[in-house]
Amino acid sequence: MKWQNALNDYKYYLKIERGLSNNSIVNYELDVEKLMHYIDANQITISPITIDYEDIQAFIYEVSKQINPRSQSRLISGLRSFFNYLVFEDYRKTNPLDQIESPKTGRKLPDTLSIDDIDNLINAIDLTKEYNGVRIGERNRALLEILYSCGLRVSELTNLKISDLFFDEGFIKVTGKGDKQRFVPIGPNTQKYILIWKDIRAYIDILPDYRDTLFLNNRGKQLTRAMIFTIIKNLAKAINLNKVISPHTFRHSFASHLLENGADLRAIQLMLGHESITTTEIYMHIDKSHLKEVLLKHHPRK
């Protein structure tokens, strides 16, 4: 079995049987391709079936010189999944990653923005700015409002449809990882800015495939992830924000601010679309002063 054949079969398995998103499949594919490139560069004659623990260990050792422990751990996890698939399909008897330990990385707490930071970023948007007759400032305000107010991932934002908006009920339908859907509440203020953008959007010459897509560029196509990163980066620069932020920073801030204001962790989990509440629990570590206030307020022997 050749490497490329094994990788193609694995990608098909991830898509059809596990139902993963294209972004997730690409990440798993990159993990295997790193190993393939190492084998080619070192002219090693070996297949996915015959590669053993020593070969993998040598590869991990070389990679560890170039990437940080967290990325190294992610790579090992991806390769372990690939070889688990080969074992599952009876191409191999054992997984050569079983004896490879991931480096200890600790728990990285997510970066967050203060409410003032978020207000300043949104206020820095030039609402009069037009591009090919499209008032992109109103679009940018709407997408930042929904990122923060609903805690969406950037891919969930770019894929959001007009048919996903249920404003009368106060919800939006979000398609998350693995095409799993959830309903997230949306407040009247955010609804207002989206409706303003919808009115402007109606004047764009929209390509047929994107007529139901909410956030578009001036050419009538779906707004890209990269463009949203650029919008946020430019706004941070405009207000001299001394932080490196991304669309995910708004999602972290959404969860953290809800928790700080007394929201139930289980409710936050459902809104974020986390499969396990242990993922959501990371936000419990951000603001220890909040935990102290909870103790003083609610414990009978404070």
From TrEMBL:
Keywords linked to the UniProt accession: Cell cycle, Cell division, Chromosome partition, Cytoplasm, DNA integration, DNA recombination, DNA-binding
Database matches in CDD domains: INT_XerDC_C
Taxonomy, superkingdom: Bacteria
Catalytic residues (UniProt): 153, 177, 248, 251, 274, 283 (o-(3'-phospho-dna)-tyrosine intermediate)
Location in the cell: Cytoplasm
Pfam (any one): Phage_int_SAM_1
Molecular function terms, GO-annotated: DNA binding; tyrosine-based site-specific recombinase activity
Biological process according to GO: cell division; chromosome segregation; DNA transposition
The Tyr recombinase domain, residue ranges: 108-296
Domain Core-binding (CB): 1-87
GO cellular component, one term: cytoplasm
HAMAP family listed in its UniProt record: Recomb_XerC_XerD (MF_01808)
Stored NCBIfam families: PRK00283.1, recomb_XerA_Arch
Subunit structure: Forms a cyclic heterotetrameric complex composed of two molecules of XerC and two molecules of XerD.
Family: Belongs to the 'phage' integrase family. XerC subfamily.
Described function: Site-specific tyrosine recombinase, which acts by catalyzing the cutting and rejoining of the recombining DNA molecules. The XerC-XerD complex is essential to convert dimers of the bacterial chromosome into monomers to permit their segregation at cell division. It also contributes to the segregational stability of plasmids.
Protein name: Tyrosine recombinase XerC
